[in-house]
Amino acid sequence: MSSHRIGLLVPSSNTTMETEIPEILRRQSALTGDQFTFHASRMRMKTVEKSELAAMNADAGRAAVELADAQVEVMAYACLVAIMSQGNGVHRGIEADLTRTAAENGCAVDVLSSAGALVEGLHHLGARKVSIVTPYMKPLTRLVAEYIESEGVEVQDSISLEVDDNLAVGRLDPSRLPDIAAGLDTRGVDAVVLSACVQMPSLPAIPAAEKRLGLPIVTAAAATSWKVLRTLGLETVADGAGALFRKD
């Protein structure tokens, strides 16, 4: 049995990533015996719009320094749209900058992002075409779709719930997601991104959505959790957490 410290870089108004990511890793622990503790540093963001997202990115270095003090073993920057709204491919530079900042402050760990994790997870599944659900306003959803497509995965269709208040996003009812996702055009897609946002609750809806759509389901929170486990060299297994957590 191993024990691991997980560092979370958290938007100040986020209320979901600190529940869904630990819950997925708790389910992994139930199968493997691995143990985890979670340590967060918050960055100010209340409204999901480009200027606040950019300001949050600018504050991420300070948050990484705080987590470095806790000597965590991995850091996860879990705000997908904060990165994807800043230009295609930028997750690589942001991850590298934060990894360097952590190392300069005595904590030589990998920093991953939910943006990079989602893209990597889709490639891991061999998904070439997806449809997505987001809570964002339509212009931000378009940026997310363009970002995913710039990484070699076609976005066939998207649904935007058009909620820009981040606290309100966290209050959305996940039980509605299977019905919402049923409105997507999923002809010929390889997977559905049920929530392209770690703040929009989705974990309880994954099994029902997979049954309803008959397709592999991925979420931003699930992809982030999967990447955390891979970074630590641990088994990526967890009940009810979607396609990335099923044994090959």
Structure overview:
- There is one protein chain.
- The chain is of the alpha/beta class and 248 residues long.
- It has two domains: 137 residues, Rossmann fold (3-Layer(aba) Sandwich); 104 residues, Rossmann fold, CATH 3.40.50.12500.
- Helix content is 44%, strand content 19%.
- The protein contains eleven helices and eight strands.
- A four-stranded parallel beta sheet has the order 2-1-3-4. A four-stranded parallel beta sheet has the order 6-5-7-8, with helices on both faces.
- Strand 7, helix 10 and strand 8 form a beta-alpha-beta unit.
- Helix 1 packs across helix 11.
- The longest helix is centred in the N-terminal third of the chain and has 16 residues.
- The two termini are 23 Å apart.
- Its EC number is 5.2.1.1.
